[in-house]
Amino acid sequence: MENIEKAISVKVSSLEDLARLASTLASRLIVMPIYRFKDNGKVFYFIQASYKDYYKQYGLPVLYYYSRPEENDVDDSKAKYVVAKTDETGERVEITDKVRPGYTAIPIVNLAERPIFFSEEKGA
Hints:
By secondary structure, this protein is mainly beta.
């Protein structure tokens, strides 16, 4: 197999931050799924962005991700959507198996294993 370079990984501080980023793209009619995989007792959620002409690095891939211990995550059968809603009462972000009226629904794509281009988490 050809050697594939690792993408640049940027850890966000919460699942809400990742959902907010994906929702921003969805509001521009760009459906950006959130990818999910498990590795070494953790669950990782990430989205991929590519930046054109970033220091002439054409198509530089950046993975924004959030990870947490597997025991703090939802059951796999429930991990189908991240739903987000912001209104006058605040922000609500949940992982669920259904879409909800009034919420932005971001599909989750569950991966069988860590992608080869996903760089190791520092301190993991």
